[in-house]
Amino acid sequence: MQLFIDQLVNGVTLGSVYALVAIGLSLIFGIVRLINFAHGEFFMLGAYILFFTFVQAQVPYGLAIVLCVVGMGLVGAIFYKIVYEPVMDRKWTAQLVATLAASVILTNAAILLFGGTQRGAPTSLSNQVLILGTLRVSYQRLLAVAVTLVAFFLLDLFITRTRIGRAMRAVSQNREVAQVVGINIRWIALVTFTVSASLAGLAAALIAPLQTISPTMGALLTLKAFAIVVIGGLGKVTGAVYAAFLVGLAESLATVYVSSEYKDAVAFLLMIAFLIWRPRGLFGQKVGI
Amino acid sequence: MQTVQRGADSTIRRPFGFAPRSFGVWTVVGAVLVVVPQVIHDSFVLDVLILAGLYVGFALTYDLTVGYVGSLSLAHPAFFGIGAYVTGLLATKLHTPILVNLIAAAVLAALFAVAVGIPSFRLSEYSFAVGTLGFATVGQVVAQNWIDVTDGPLCVTNIPKPAIFVTIDSLPAFYYLMTAAAVLILLFMHRLIGSRIGRSFKAVRENEVMAESVGINPLKYKMLAFSLGAAGAAGIGTLYAYFIGIVCPTDLALTGTLTLLVILFIGGSGSLRGVVLGAILVTALPEFLRIGDQWRLLLYGVALLLIINFLPNGLEGLFHRRSRT
Amino acid sequence: MILQVERLAKSFFGLNVLNHISLSVAEHELLSIIGPNGSGKTTLFNVISGHLRPDGGTVTFAGADITGQPAHRIAVRGISRTFQDVRLFASLSVMDNLLLAVQQHQEDNLLGRFFQSRSVAAHERVAVERTREMLALINLEQYADFPAGQLSYGQRKLLQFGLAIIPDPSLLLLDEPAAAVNPTMINTIKQRIVDFNKQDKTVVLIEHNMDVVMDISHRILVMDYGEVIAEGPPEAIRHNPLVLEAYFGR
User: Fold this and answer.
1) Contact B49, B175 (CB under 8 A)
2) What residues are paired with C228 via a beta bridge?
3) Is residue C175 within 8 Å of residue C189, measured between CB atoms?
4) What values do phi and psi take at B146, rounded to 5?
5) pLDDT-flagged residues of chain B (< 50)
6) pLDDT tens digits, chain C, 250 residues: what are they?
7) What's the pLDDT score for residue B18?
8) B85 and B64: one domain?
9) Residue B189: per-residue pLDDT
């Protein structure tokens, strides 16, 4: 029983990280109709920003988180300019391949620049544990979940209450009409990339202290994020959140009750199952996008 | 005066019919291919040529799905891996001959292609990409973790050399085997694309709804291309297993797709000649320039990004431009 | 009755585009369907040709129930259609476009096709023959090797028409064949439609051009809000108050 509860907690933490990452991917797909292969690299770069600011430059953790978010926002904007904008009028397959190329460039540049050895960035909270009866949770995990919830709340406000947020929703529903009513698609795409990368940066800042940092840490995450977005329903951000928690929990439970080696396959098996039995995902429309 | 834009292909080819003029060219090319190992004895060069032949087959079979029916598959390395592992395991555990292993690998790959392809194609074009990606990832995880069967990171080792009338265990012998395989695949694709099936492929790629309207079942043709491509990739995987002698989970890595995409984009997807040239170029060049793994991948990435932006039709696009002036 | 549609229903996002509509088409007749924009005419075509699945109701063609069957199966049964936005295989040659329209109606034997068996080769010769005839009929002979996307709008409309009739369908569905076309071309198209109908074929048109409709139709059906609100010979429809209200009285 104890094990079960532990895994539930792990699952929720994992789910919130996945959610932050998957939301970014879902936003980009929903608004820009792009499958961004380099998304996991946003996470990876965020983790390295954390390492260099928090560990090497000894910047206080709170400030380091902010730097991660802002820094990644910048990276997102640059990425938009260099990788996406040149191909934004081309077929989606060309765009996907462009992001794949970017992903490889970022990963291998990271290996060459930062070295392949794994780094660590533990915070004071990583090892402090909250004890509630038989429940033992690291404060860092609690922080991750708490900050994630705040981030969701703020993001929701942004999307529903601001003009830009409304414009983003308009574009995701009907690009041509949005252009006709005067919405600047390029600007919206830029904002979307910035927000998406910042979310990934935030996720990295929260979770990197709990694991090791390496140039290839983003690869598997990208793939899982895709699976999550499909499970949630292509283009549906709320769906991605639910799917993220579903996958997080499933993975944690599978680690213990099935086998820890195959846990990474869980997300994809779930995705394949959905593709077979409910292709539109949890919240997707019946007609394919 | 209205300029006539040619280049739109029409009508199908007679089987194995080649124009008289190109027959001469083919004879010369064939002669060169046959003579190479007699003249070149440098094992490094032969190694590279064998690798190039491997990638020619790998890329051509990939282009069946990507170039001819227009579906972006990310699972090709997985089918390659299935071929390599099936052969490696059958050869080491059951000592079955190469032909049996080849067929087993190809059939298994085709079955997986059907199992993965049908649900993936159903929802939308995007879901096919992601579905094949999921399959490739699961494949990698399984290869890595199914220790009982695949030995995981320890790899399947000591794969015996194959025997087709004679044992193939020298570089020249493997060169002939790989070249023969590449040529066979090339001829097969040439025939396929020049037939009514090829015409239907193009229709599906061009406008799926319209294809349906004229009676073509898009799913059937997509699955045909996809599973033939998968079987081909498995065949290449088989030859690879015999050549290298070891099969590891890293052979299934998704970065394999990157190399394939670079080849397709450089050479020109949808063109046999372009893909063949692209494969040879992309494989041989980094080898001869002795570029390390990370730098090579970095270069591929940069090259791909540049090509997508400046040369979307690859070398083949250059060919067409020249012939029009 | 070559085509029978019974209580066909289709809604999109809560909007009833087809409202349990029923109608039938007699063999060899030339039927026009008219009605204001948004009355569901194209959706009706889409359901009949299999491009859309209905939410309810049945479609019967030549005695067989074809409801919900995929478009490619219905096409091979003998129903051809054209689209409002002229659809073609743009980067394939005009010749290839027409050959594609024929080949599925001849055979679909994969092995035979790969090895170019004798029967497939024979079919191909016949197909090329028919294609050349059709090219002559629609005046596109010198454009045989042109990519279809390079034709002018009027030529593309003719090609689309050619694609629809070359497989010799028993039922032809034409979606606004006279739209956005110059008067000379309209006459050509009108003539081709009438000629085709005279060969014992059934034709159903969606059209807004009243001159064309009144001129060639045997019978006219008027749709509004996903239902049939009037039907009859051209003269009767011309003076029908419901029709006038539907078109002008909003």
Assistant:
1) yes
2) C223
3) no
4) -85, 70
5) 1-10, 16-18, 20, 322-325
6) 889 999 999 988 778 889 899 999 999 999 999 988 888 899 999 999 999 999 999 999 998 999 989 999 999 999 999 998 888 999 899 999 999 999 988 888 888 888 888 888 888 899 999 999 999 988 888 998 889 988 998 889 989 999 999 999 999 999 999 888 888 888 888 999 999 999 989 999 999 888 888 889 999 999 988 889 888 898 888 888 777 777 666 5
7) 47
8) yes
9) 93
Antiparallel, parallel or unpaired: β C30-34 and C202-206: parallel
CA dihedral C81, C86, C92, C93 (to 10 degrees): 90
CB pairs under 8 A between A and B: 127
Closest by Cα among C35, C5, C9 to C23: C5
pTM as predicted: 0.85
Same domain? For B83 and B130 the reply is: yes
Prediction ipTM score:
0.88
User: Chain-centre distance of CA A160, in angstroms?
Assistant: 20
**CB C19, CB C35: distance < 8 Å:** no
Answer whether C146 sits within 8 Å of B211, measured CB to CB: no
Contact C116 B14 (CB under 8 A): yes
What is d(CA B254, CA B257) in angstroms, rounded to the nearest whole number? 6
Domain boundary among B230, B251, B272: B251
Q: How far apart are CA A150 and CA C42, in angstroms?
A: 48
Q: How many Å apart are CA C3 and CA C5, to the nearest integer?
A: 7
Name the nearest CA neighbour of A200 among A58, A43, A35: A43
C-alpha C94/C-alpha C99 separation (Å) is 9
In terms of domains, do B118 and B61 share one?
Answer: yes
Q: Tell me, yes or no, whether B5 lies in a domain.
A: yes
Q: Does B294 touch chain C (CB under 8 A)?
A: no
Beta bridge partners of C173: C81, C204
- pLDDT, chain A, mean: 86
User: Do the beta carbons of residue A233 and residue A114 sit within 8 Å?
Assistant: no
Give CA separation, C24 vs C7, C34, C67, C173, in Å.
Answer: 11, 15, 15, 14
Task: Look at residues B154, C165, B289, B83 and name the one whose alpha carbon lies nearest to residue B281.
Answer: B289
* H or E segment to which residue C172 belongs: strand C171-175
Please report residues of B whose CB lies closer than 8 A to that of C49. Answer: 213
**H runs (alpha helix) in chain C:** 41-48, 71-77, 94-106, 110-115, 118-137, 153-165, 183-198, 210-216, 234-238, 241-248
* Residue B150 counted as domain residue: yes
Domain that holds residue B28: 1-32
CB-based contact, B8 to chain C, within 8 Å? yes
Q: Which pLDDT belongs to residue B120?
A: 83
CA distance, residue B306 to nearest chain A CA (Å): 9
Domain ranges, ordered by start, for chain A: 15-216
Residues of chain A positioned with their CB less than 8 A from the CB of B258: 100-101, 104
